[in-house]
Amino acid sequence: xxxxxxxxxxxxxxxxxxxxxxxxxxxxxxxxxxxxxxxxxxxxxxxxxxxxxxxxxxxxxxxxxxxxxxxxxxxxxxxxxxxxxxxxxxxxxxxxxxxxxxxxxxxxxxxxxxxxxxxxxxxxxxxxxxxxxxxxxxxxxxxxxxxxxxxxxxxxxxxxxxxxxxxxxxxxxxxxxxxxxxxxxxxxxxxxxxxxxxxxxxxxxxxxxxxxxxxxxxxxxxxxxxxxxxxxxxxxxxxxxxxxxxxxxxxxxxxxxxxxxxxxxxxxxxxxxxxxxxxxxxxxx
Length: 285
What we know:
Helix content: 25-40%
Low-confidence stretches: 1-7
Shape: globular
CATH class: Alpha Beta
Strand order of the largest sheet: 1-2-4-3-5-6-7-8
């Protein structure tokens, strides 16, 4: 909640798609016709982008959803979770809130969902920022892939004591976290173990690879990656950059899988640049 207060004039809201209720944080400029929508990654929450949203809120409208199946969103166990399905649910849920379209930003799984939304609903997406995004097969295996192939999945945390080691695997720069908050985060993460395992298994089984469709993405795109990313190798970022014609690749040195947490200032700047490029195109400048 402290992080949400730092966002400024933000209010909780909800959207629906079918039987899914999707909590949102809504803030920034209320008169922005094309808000920035920030999508978190696997096992994460909408709070992941709060520091970035705080910096963007002076000049942009903001929407931070919980992805279906995660955090405070609906989590039916009998639903099949794939990137395409998450994209469909979010596009439907945001239709009324973004009648003139949106600027999409996504980290990790959220990046793959953002790319899929851009491909399936091109008239509604005006810019795309991919932050260590999944969605492509890795040309070079990551440390996470090697762990999984060896029979150990770092996302399966057995108890609360194992959570700090998980954070250190995901983040190269772990921000200071007070002990009581760390324990709450650990307890919630461990409680989600069954749901995380189910969704991860379905994502792996679906094995979506958008490589052959990247040429269809025509909006201004930023590909933002940490060179210490142990989950999604930088080779994926290079593949996104090579496949999307109007894209720019920025590699952050000494940063892991979540630049929005580890390097929020540069993340804010790169998102703002990408949105500005798209807005100039819309206005014919």
